[in-house]
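S.,

As promised, the beta-D-glucopyranose run. Input:
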Amino acid sequence: MSARGQAFGIDIGGSGVKGAAVDLATGELVHERIKIPTPHPSTPHAVAEAVAKLVAQAGWEGPVGVTLPSVVIDGVARSAANIDKSWIGTDARALFSVALGGRKVTVLNDADAAGLAEDHYGAAKDLTGQVILLTFGTGIGSAVMYHGVLMPNTELGHLEVDGCEAEHRAAASIKDRDGLTYPEWAAEVSKVLITLENLFWPNVFVVGGGISRDHEQWIPLLTNRTPVVAAHLKNTAGIVGAAMAVEAGIAP
Ligand code: BGC
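Predicted complex:
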């Protein structure tokens, strides 16, 4: 299957390889998300097999967009967070394309994909100017967009804030690891947002990741000046953004 106005997106994370066909007119999934556990070790070869299995299971024959928790330049993974370090230097686009029978594939950073999706269909849909999306999970992912155009691979989670990397201070995993309350964790997130807004001056921050489901418990506690809104697409943002990227021919 491969239908007009649709593309297939796959989001690769530390625990699952998730994918679905996406209706590009609405940003909605065409069918229920398919999830395959991320192989361990999550080597390029093992993950490519999981990707091929997922696409075959969906019966999809068209182009495929894929996210990685990595810096991706020209289809090549240049870093690896929460996946096997052997990804570094791997031509992920060529690898997935071969695994999928030579079809068109785009590979991009996971947060960049989520940013594209939120900017086009989600929380930042009607907003203009500069939008910074941050995903709070094991680490902190970032996407910087200006009037819908993505500046890829920003890696703001690694910015040093008060002598400590932003994601080591305010990722959702730090809240869990250190048993922080929402007020305690929100104070750390605020420090990160204040540093970012003083450098980038965005019009809005969109916050995503699993913890954004509980946004009422922490967004009101933030003390930075830029408006902060919760992501809308939740766990489909990576899939939707990957599908958008392959359709648009975005190849960071
Ligand atoms: C990585 C980013 C990734 C983010 C979320 C960070 O540790 O450096 O590339 O987008 O985690 O997965």
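The mean pLDDT is 96. The two ends are 27 Å apart (CA to CA).

- D.
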